[in-house]
Write a structure and sequence with these properties.
With 101 residues, this protein is mainly α. It has a single domain, classed as Glycosyl transferase family 10, C-terminal domain (Rossmann fold). It contains 4 helices and 2 strands; from the N terminus they run H-E-E-H-H-H. Strands 1-2 form a two-stranded parallel ribbon. It starts with 12 loop residues before the first helix and ends with a helix.
Length: 101
């Protein structure tokens, strides 16, 4: 969970699950799908019973079918909108460019 909910408030918390090669269960920014592949996470969209039930159902589905879990955990982490390829190398180059200004 994030410490607060805001449109673009996304911290390192979601990346901890990715780093551990798991499927993060995320509650926070409603815009998380603008940056991360929603098929690669379990997104608890809000605090409604329906959203919580959907997240629990997805957890149960992945627990009960190992092939679905393996498929999901191997999906790309970042959102791919085909308009911009993002990689760690691109991000590092952007940071270097900003620092050297």
């Amino acid at each position: 969970m994030e410490n607060s909910v805001g449109e673009t408030y996304i911290t390192e918390k979601i990346t901890h699950g990715f780093y551990a090669d798991t499927i993060p269960i995320y509650f926070g920014s409603p815009n998380v799908g603008d940056y991360f592949n929603l098929a690669r996470i379990i997104n608890v969209a809000d605090t409604s019973d329906a959203a919580i039930d959907a997240a629990i159902d997805r957890m149960l589905e992945l627990i009960q079918d190992e092939s679905k879990y393996v498929e999901a955990v191997n999906l790309p982490i970042l959102r791919n909108n085909n308009s911009n390829t993002v990689s760690i190398h691109n991000v590092a180059a952007d940071i270097r460019a900003l620092i050297s200004r």
